[in-house]
Amino acid sequence: MSAPFRFPKFFVTNPAPCPYLPGKVERKVFTELSGRNAAELNEALGRIGFRRSQSVAYRPSCADCNACVSVRVRTEDFAPSRTHRRLMRQHADLDVTACKPWTTAEQYELLARYLTDRHPGGGMAEMDEQDYADMVEQTPVRTYVIEYREPADEYGRPGKLVGSCLSDQQSDGLSMIYSFFDTAEDARKGLGTYIILDHILRAQRAGLPYVYLGYWVEGSDRMAYKTRFKPMERLGRDGWRPMEESLTVDYADRGKPLPARTRSDKVLPVK
Hints:
Elements: E1 11-12, E2 16-17, E3 25-26, E4 28-32, H1 38-46, E5 51-53, E6 56-60, E7 68-74, H2 82-90, E8 95-99, H3 105-118, H4 129-137, E9 143-149, E10 161-170, E11 173-181, H5 191-205, E12 210-217, E13 232-236, E14 239-242
């Protein structure tokens, strides 16, 4: 017999400076994900715009701004661009593994370099190794760490870790919680885009209709990349609807599928 459903209690954070739009103030509403129904609650809240962080589900609740919009890619109808297909071929040699949500020093070191380069002074900039372990390991839902590595050497030793993504598997899709990758001058180009493409491919092969990308913020350059994955849906007052076509870039090869096989064929376990 399943446990009775308890309506969650919601709380509101104190106002704080917005990390995306200068001069704005952010506020969040959140609730704890706990008990037997934590996964079901997380999915239900995710469909109305909440995101997960450790054992908490939250969403923006700002008094004078609604710029943060939940977005998701429709995987079955995904239309890759020429650049997308080129990146899939370019990074097809990477070894990609879906791991249990346990952290390693190698992951943290890559994250620290990524934050220093891409998000200096951001809310996660001061994250230490224990903070990172809490972010990954404190999860009440079905979670994986996807690792992206250079090919193994001639002795079979694992290659260098160049990317990683913390992802939740839900009944209707994959939710990308946080991704990071090598940003050094000599690093592979387009790794962030490739990680999203890999998730779309995994979702397609697992029969999952969506990849959730979190929030898109109109006017924020840091979020502009999310509009490059079409078709995309955005959450509004009337539910999930297609993004405006005005946001669609001109894809010369729209409609052609992603490459049929890559070294990243290993989809997340779904059984």
